[in-house]
Amino acid sequence: GDRMGSNNYLQQIYHAAEPGYAGVITVPVLFDKQLKTIVNNESSEIIRMLNAEFNALAVHPGIDLYPEPLRQQIDEVNAWIYPSINNGVYRSGFAQSQHAHEQAVDELFDALERVERILQKQAFLCGDVLTEADVRLFPTLIRFDAVYHTHFKCNRKLIAQYPALHRYMAKIYQLPGIAETVDMDHIRFHYYYSHRHINPTGIVPRGPDVLAAL
Predict the structure, then answer these.
(1) Bridge partners for 38 per DSSP
(2) Are the CB atoms for 66 and 48 separated by under 8 Å?
């Protein structure tokens, strides 16, 4: 029979791939259906694999989000955007002290201001073409006003109050294939309902309607 069987929860996949696994259950997961095991669970590595290793199967193999001439620049941008913004919202929301929260929020909004200044001068983070750096930033931006602003107390400003960032987010959302990856109802439900240590009632707010403004 199928070694994986019927799985409703990701932890079942982890335990089937490695019996006795005691680590953290995280997403995303790159899963090998033939060997029935987890190949990788680190998003920064998976995005590189999907960019280059699956071109034989890709519908658009010519798309390269990590082009050789821009690699150093992409790496440099990722190096401050990930800790300050992608992870910064979590550091803010899961902070266990006022000081830790304020430190994370200050770093987060300093970095958002830095991105705003970059995008006032160019279309994307590394110039005039979409790269891996933009793909990594977009999910945090699209969730920000609906979730992180309130749920994680990142409420100094909305992304909608940054003209260049908001235009940039809309531009990426309107690219072919992007909109169908964004399920705002699922995003809201996941955060507000599942983080009971932050939101004990599990009440999920109805707004704001982020997508209507894009």
Answers:
(1) 31
(2) yes
What 3-state DSSP class applies to 11?
Answer: helix
CA–CA gap between residue 153 and residue 113 (Å, rounded): 18
At 95, list the tokens. Answer: 């902070």
Per the document, the length of the chain is: 214
> Which of 81, 82, 195 lies closest to 147 in space, CA to CA?
195
Q: What is the DSSP letter of 148?
A: I
Residues 6+ apart with CB under 8 A from 147: 187, 188, 191, 192
* pTM confidence score: 0.91
Residue 187's pLDDT is 96
- What helix, strand, coil percent values describe the chain, rounded to 5? 55, 5, 40
Compute the distance between CA of residue 48 and CA of residue 51 in angstroms, rounded to an integer: 5
Amino acid at 51: N
CB 172 within 8 A of CB 131: no
Q: Which residues pair with 124 in a beta bridge?
A: 127
What does the alpha-carbon distance between residue 140 and residue 88 come to, in Å, rounded to a whole number?
10
User: What is the per-residue pLDDT across 10-41, written as a single tens digit (0 to 9) for each?
Assistant: 899 999 889 989 888 988 999 999 998 999 99
Q: What is the pLDDT of residues 130-156, one digit of tens each?
A: 999 999 999 999 999 999 999 999 999
- Quote the CA–CA distance of 49 and 7 in Å, as a whole number: 25
Query: Dihedral (C-alpha) 71, 75, 76, 77: value to the nearest 10 degrees?
Result: 100
